[in-house]
Design goal:
By secondary structure, the protein is mostly helical. The longest helix is centred in the last third of the chain and has 27 residues. The relative contact order is 0.16.
């Protein structure tokens, strides 16, 4: 019974983490933007859930945070839900089959996931809007945003480690 209550507490802690991330990401009064780099902390948080609990928990965290992100973002057309569920699922599978469970694997996985997320989002929204400066947008906006977002795995890794010890 104590183990079951601990599981509920872990889920509650991660739900609280995602609520804080959503508040920081979509708050119009407080921005984490640095220059052209706008972080998407949900990608690193989904990678963290998949890192500690496997692909199906990563899938669930990805779809739920993606649905919320699509609900508050205009014109995303379910893009975040699909991308974040794929990030959670693929991260969990890669960690289970190929990668070690250490900080370097988490950094690598977060960097690759953020790079793919911003590359596909840049291509999706540029193709959707018909912009001609695609390479300039990808280099000046998407690349700094991907690097900045990937660095959020460091605090999330240690927060996830603390939650795992509960």
């Amino acid at each position: 019974m104590n183990k079951q209550n601990s599981g509920y507490l872990k889920v509650a802690c991660f739900i609280g983490l995602f609520i804080i991330i959503s508040f920081l990401s979509f708050n119009p009064f407080f921005s984490l933007k640095i220059g052209n780099a706008v972080p998407v902390m949900s990608v690193a948080a989904v990678v963290t859930v998949a890192f500690y609990y496997g692909e199906w928990w990563g899938f669930t965290a990805g779809i739920l945070s993606g649905i919320f992100a699509d609900a508050v973002t205009s014109g995303s057309y379910c893009f975040n839900a699909v991308m974040l569920l794929l990030v959670g699922l693929c991260s969990g599978i890669l960690l289970r089959k190929y990668l070690n469970r250490n900080i370097f694997s988490a950094l690598t996985l977060s960097g690759v996931a953020n790079g793919i997320y911003f590359l596909i989002s840049g291509m999706f929204f540029l193709a959707n809007n018909g912009a001609f400066q695609g390479a300039e947008y990808l280099l000046l906006h998407s690349l700094p945003s991907a690097v900045y977002s990937a660095l959020f795995i460091i605090p999330f890794y240690f927060i996830g480690k603390l939650i795992k010890k509960i």
